[in-house]
Design a protein that fits this description.
Blueprint (H helix, E strand, L loop, with lengths): L3 H19 L13 E8 L2 E7 L4 E6 L14 E5 L4 E9 L3 E9 L8 H15 L15 H7 L10 H7 L18 H4 L6
Antiparallel strand pairs: 1-2, 2-3, 3-6, 4-5, 5-6
Length: about 200
């Protein structure tokens, strides 16, 4: 694993290239946003943090030094216990970055008014993610719930994966208008809980 600074710089470089070469003129892009890494840190030897792009926001996880993920199949789901909850990640391999696992937070990104708005959401997510909870009160495997709550669409599944969009050069238009107003949630709801 590279050092933190060089790895985050590499991630940003690669996804800026993906945006430039594969995502131009795709309607799901939010032109107010740019590629940026937020909150990357080492947790239990693995690098973890949030990637913001104009088309998605994902939590990214990289293997620890000496940890071999080569036997994992691309697209497979892996569960990882983080301080606040257990989350389901998907195995990905990204050119010039390598193997990683990703957990979708937002896609598309029309909810956000500007880069500062997206950064604040990513920073809040990472801060709350790292607060230890002994026994999560929710179904830990519902990774779509966060996106549904933040959109006020509890019943809507969010299965769109930003990496798959980039690879497929998706040209479908998202016909859904999302609110640009900041969303205020309880800590439990923000990390996948249901308020009674």
């Amino acid at each position: 694993m590279q050092d933190l600074s060089s790895m985050t710089q590499q991630i940003e470089t690669v996804f800026k290239r993906i945006e430039r070469e594969q995502m131009q003129d795709i309607p799901i892009l939010n032109p107010a946003l740019q590629v940026e890494t937020i909150g990357f840190q080492v947790y239990q030897g693995r690098l973890i943090g949030v990637l913001i792009t104009p088309w998605m926001m994902n939590l990214m996880l990289f293997p620890a030094e000496g940890e071999d993920w080569s036997e994992l199949k691309l697209g497979d789901k892996q569960y990882h216990r983080l301080p606040a909850n257990e989350y389901r990640f998907m195995v990905n391999e990204i050119d010039q970055i390598g193997l990683c696992q990703t957990h979708p937070i937002y896609s598309p990104m029309h909810e956000f008014m500007n880069q500062e708005h997206a950064m604040a959401a990513a920073e809040s997510f990472m801060k709350t993610l790292m607060i230890e909870v002994e026994e999560p009160e929710t179904d830990p495997h519902d990774e779509a719930l966060l996106g549904r709550i933040l959109r006020g669409e509890e019943s809507v599944e969010v299965e769109m994966d930003g990496f798959a969009l980039a690879e497929a050069k998706c040209k479908q238009q998202s016909g859904e208008e999302l609110s640009a107003e900041p969303v205020h949630l309880s800590r439990r709801a923000f990390l996948g809980g249901r308020d009674s």
